[in-house]
Amino acid sequence: MENITHDHILQCVQEGNLTEVLQVLKENALDECCDIMTAVKQILKAAPSDQQKLRLQVFHFMLSVLRNPDVSPRVASQLLGILHTQMPSIAVSELARVVHGLLKDVKTGGNSEGRWLEAIPQLLSRVGSCSWVEGPNGETLSGPQWKQLVVQELCSCTWTPAWALPLARLFSELQVDARELAYAVEKLVQVLPQMELSDIAPFLYQLLLLSNEECMVTVLDAAIRFLNGLQDDRSSEMKQAEGTIILHVVFATRQNLDIGRRLVHLLKERPASFVLSKFSLALALALAKTDPLAQQMLQVLKGAMNKTDPLAQQMLQVLKGAMNTHFEERGHVQRSHWVRSLLSKQHTVEQCVLDVADCCQSPGGWEEVVQGLVRFGFLLLDCNGLSMSELGARLIVRVFNPVSCHTILDQLVQRLLAPSSATPTLTNSLVVLSKLVTGRSTLVLRQESKLIDLLGYLARLPSAHATRILEVLLPVVKVSASLRDSLVIVLRKAAFSRNNEARKVAVSGCLVLLPYEPLLEDVLSILSRALVQQASVRQLVYEELPQVAHQNAGICSPAVNCHK
Q1: How far apart are the first and last CA of the chain?
Q2: How far is Cα 492 from Cα 501, in angstroms, rounded to an integer?
Q3: Residue 546 belongs to what domain range?
Q4: Contact of 149 with 135, CB cutoff 8 Å
């Protein structure tokens, strides 16, 4: 590079021979000390505007540098900028020849790396805007006709997996009509099964961004079918690839909400076995949490579905419908020995749903599924069928982790305190809370403030309702001093309440806590107060206390003294 001085460049330009200079620049293109951009600008500045040969030589040189994948992004971006500014100074016929030369590399499966492909959209735009162009066989074509011919020629090439992602990026910048776009997308999708798992996520992202509404369905359907076909692959690499794909699709949906709407439409038309396969289920749940819709709305949903948006609601209803269909079909199968004998392997949706929940413990995109999975679990919990509500309970417990515990307990508390809670809703919510208290007590106690709030509302609930809640919470009350103190205060206030139902809550709560020795003295003092209240309150003490004392012999003597 020491020999390439400004004077040397001027001399070579005057002599009309840049071969030596450009060769040295190409050999040193990766050298950080080589200021290739300054040299190129000096050459172009020194070259007369009528020296087409020299400018074309520099043009080809810049393209050759862009073919090198190791060129720094800064240099590559600057070279692309110079290419764009130099196109008007080069004859259209020469630019057309450059394009046909680049197409030959695509046809022969040459080097797909580097950023040289990014020059093609600019070249097509420049040549395609001309009134006439000489075609590859010497024929005269209009600019748009020539551009259409080039796109068709590009689509007719054999595309290998190595070319799939670069070509997807290329077509996202090309201006093509709907028919050409559909053909290109269909051809790109066919390469999907041959690609490396690590390349699929960015490939699908590019396809979704370049697709119109019709092509989106093609891309989503092909991707889901392909990945659902690999659901038996439980390797960490597969899990990571699926998570990355989910992350890319969610990000693409945030940029274009039509992707989510087309997925809803696609899932509505597909059978339950398609919708409830592992990947399609995970993807639908990830998109069920999307919130950036133009018109957000609040809808009151049954159970724990509080704030949502139309896309999320549609997605969850599609999944719920698929679950209903699946359990109905399974019921028919189980009632028919003949049908069971014909089916070698049934589609185990329950295990598929729980597998998705297990995958949510992994990073790398799966965290996008958690929120939708929680919503889906509560939606199943409210279903009439026993199998679906049980699956909903198992799902909520399975996905209960440090990230989701706040949301889950918040929804459970709201459901338990809702004045219009139906008996199935209350029962199912208590089943979930009981499993969490006994199996995930450490995480539950991290949300101690929510449990204290729940205890504070007990006196306002029907006594039977409050008693069931206390029985469920008893394991964590025993290990938490804060919960014990809060509960004693709540029961004491309830015992002195003017409301007769609140007094019954106090009695029922005391009877639940009576076998717990550390609170025995406090509980008996509250029961003593109950014995001088209304007949219905005293009756409750007399009816329930003997049974509790019979089951816990150690409290018989203190309980008898309570009557004195």
Answers
A1: 108
A2: 14
A3: 432-564
A4: yes
